[in-house]
Amino acid sequence: MVVSVFRNIGANNHSNSERQPEDFYATDPLAAMLLLDIVPELDNIWECACGQGHLAKVFANQGKLFKATDIIDRGYGTTEDFLQNNQPYHNGDIVTNPPYKYAQEFVEHAISLVDTGRYVCMFLKVLFLESRSRKELFTKQPPKTIYISSSRIICAKNGDFNKYTSSAIAYAWYIWEKGYIGNSIVKWIN
């Protein structure tokens, strides 16, 4: 019983099957469309864990994509290890669904790369809010807004949306604006 509860909430150590080795769980493009509705000022977007381009293609179709990269060539974007990129100040916004096991590193690194006033938007589990190790991140660099998806958006292992048609995991867009000082605001989307 306990294992099934943890499995349903997406706990990695209680999974019924092996996690995808590179933590590739593609995001339903709906998430990108919702993000552009709630933060329409996003521009010059670097999608830094683009996988097969599910989010990046939406941004490209809206004329907002600067570049799309991923550590592995999955047929879209260019190959680059985001966490190893140390070119300061991307004059745009960074948006992605990062590999969950490196989510905090992606957030911190993205914030270090953007100019003040630019956005870092990460599509993460609602559970990302809890953790002693992330408390310091949320204290020093609080997200400006967290948009919780009121209906479940699917993240499909290996991008196989035909196999994964529903989700037991709740996700949210975490929106950081570099330089923001204040309390995080929680809102709901869809």
Question: Can you give me a brief rundown of this structure?
Answer:
By secondary structure, the protein is an alpha/beta fold. The protein contains five helices and ten strands. The protein is globular, with a radius of gyration of 16 Å.
How would you characterize the overall build of this protein?
The protein is of the alpha/beta class and 190 residues long. The protein has helices spanning 2-8, 30-38, 56-61, 103-113, 132-140, and strands at 25-27, 45-47, 65-70, 78-79, 94-96, 119-125, 145-149, 155-157, 171-177, 185-189. The protein has a single domain, classed as Rossmann fold, CATH 3.40.50. Helix content is 22%, strand content 23%. The protein has a five-stranded mixed beta sheet, sandwiched between helices. The chain has a three-stranded parallel beta sheet with strand order 2-3-4. The chain has a two-stranded antiparallel sheet with strand order 1-8. Strand 5 (94-96), helix 4 and strand 6 (119-125) form a beta-alpha-beta unit. The protein starts with a helix and ends with a strand. The model is unreliable at 1-14 (pLDDT under 50).
